[in-house]
Records
---
Amino acid sequence: MCLINHMVEQEDRLNKAFAALADPTRRDMVARLASADATVGELAAPYDVSLQAVSKHLKVLEDAGLVHRSRDAQRRPVHLDAEVFDLMTKWIERYRREAEERFRRIDRLLAEMNQDQTEEERGAS
Amino acid sequence: MCLINHMVEQEDRLNKAFAALADPTRRDMVARLASADATVGELAAPYDVSLQAVSKHLKVLEDAGLVHRSRDAQRRPVHLDAEVFDLMTKWIERYRREAEERFRRIDRLLAEMNQDQTEEERGAS
DNA sequence: ACCGTATTCAACCTGACGGTTGACAACGGG
DNA sequence: CCCGTTGTCAACCGTCAGGTTGAATACGGT
């Protein structure tokens, strides 16, 4: 029960995390936040959109657990949270590895079949 | 010029790849395709949606370069392409590492400040 | 106390997404 | 040759994402 809840919850986190990073503006924000915390205004500066739009983007990142906002007077400095990244890389790497392993097996199989083929030919000639 | 094109193109691939994996159905498909190729019908079986919907999902995955379809009579076997995964993990890992390194530096800084603080206190007492 | 700065909230618009159904294309088996 | 199987295309629909603008909130400086 608790186990299933945990899995579903993780599903949801992955949904949100991948969706959040699907937007190039948000990916750029994350990239910049990796090297330093920043306020909403600072983050908004390079982009040609309203401050409100940036605020929305930050909310998405926050809901995805990629970021959290603290407070400093009227500023709301944004700080990157790296944990969720782990979840994503684990998911990706798991299936990438599985797939690649399978490819290797298939390659080997094909190689063996070729081997047999040539041996057969040699025998027939 | 070619360099910039390349970067933009990669941006676009990341957009599509992250967006594609933001959908739990599509992630599940990828998970299943990691262990074996499958036809559209086979892929559709577990889900409670029309075959057409599944076909659309596959188109999304294909456009994202995560998958490609070959042909075998009227079947269209789907095969996972692992390359794009690399692109994603590289992106994620780059910034995760950058962020974590920064955190470590901050931790060290805080530790030093604490050290100074206690030394000061010791001196004052 | 007031004003300016920094940010969010609310309402709205548009386009894309995920789903449906119905028609159509392609191919092999009997 | 035709029929069933497998899958795609096209049109449509409801919902949500990302953008806008305008008002509201929260705080510090003076």
---
Amino acid sequence: MSKIKITDTTSKKDLIYEVAAGLFREKGFRATSMRELAAKVGIEAASLYNHIHGKNDLLNGICFKVANTFTRKMDEVESEDCTIIEKVEKLIRFHVHEMVTHYQDVYVSDREWRNMEEPELTKYREMRRMYRKRFASIVEKGISRGEIKKIDANTAVMIFLNAIAAVDQWHRIIHKVDSDQLENNMVIVLIEGLKS
Amino acid sequence: MSKIKITDTTSKKDLIYEVAAGLFREKGFRATSMRELAAKVGIEAASLYNHIHGKNDLLNGICFKVANTFTRKMDEVESEDCTIIEKVEKLIRFHVHEMVTHYQDVYVSDREWRNMEEPELTKYREMRRMYRKRFASIVEKGISRGEIKKIDANTAVMIFLNAIAAVDQWHRIIHKVDSDQLENNMVIVLIEGLKS
DNA sequence: CACATAAGCTAACGTGTGTTAGTTCTTTCA
DNA sequence: TGAAAGAACTAACACACGTTAGCTTATGTG
């Protein structure tokens, strides 16, 4: 079937996506060449096309995988029966968790999605927009119930989402602070504030 | 002297930098071509080289302008005589202010600096690293004085810096919320927390 | 008016890119 | 064992890019 034995659990296609995510994160989508990707995978550039349709497919795949993950989590949290603060906390913890476990993908989907082409670009933008909107609705409900300070909900959501997206410094911090502690720090600062 | 009268206050070189920052922000450094930049400026690509040395110079110029601005502000804040919380608040407000007034430049320096080449890349990285370190030192002093909760200072700085860097949604929010209110929301959420 | 110069233009070069065509090798399965 | 097919290879194409060379035009100063 193939020259090189493939692990039962991971196909070559998956390997290509994984390496691509790493390169896109490190150097950016545009700055990563198919030849470079191929070299890291251990084959020639042309051989990549036995497994994928093209460079854009790689970016699309990564971005929508992440977008779908977060959208599904939002479905789950919305339908849960708990306080608003708890919902916000669950979302923050999920973001941190995803960042720690799949940070290459999350980073790429966050920073490189601009390089997608239509019609995927519009679809992705819409998913992003909806996610933020749903997050803001939760915050607004929290404000109206008196659980949350009277602030602009969109600003709050913007702060949250971006606070967590700092992936370049991420690994450095992860190795100093363990990831549970990181999650807790994040929740504390964002929900309780800096001041003691 | 030139075919087109230049405004006394703005040289053509400045105009090129300004348009470049807009394009780099919108499409990314790599995805912006000199031909496209030239078209937006209203000249041919080759004519750009009468004003600048090359594409890399544009990125270098933008990044170091921003880095110098923040480094100078850090000098100022460090030497001020006030509480730690006030220092942190001053820095946050300055970040928001710079973002509102020069968001193209700030955004580009934050997201596109990877595309710089040596030796500028190393120098820029070092400036960034120093800035974060000095910021973290302030937070740590706040912790030891009991003004700030016992959290990981690096994580806190990471949260702050990234919370403010969400420029893509920035203009949208600015037009709904005025920029003073934005600054206040930011300070409230980050210093006092979300919970009421 | 004439000269120097700034700033524009056209044309082109060299390079790197994504991708395709065509071929060869290896493995699986009937 | 032999056919089918998956997956690798080499070679090349077409294109877009940053940049340079060389020329032309316009303008301010003597």
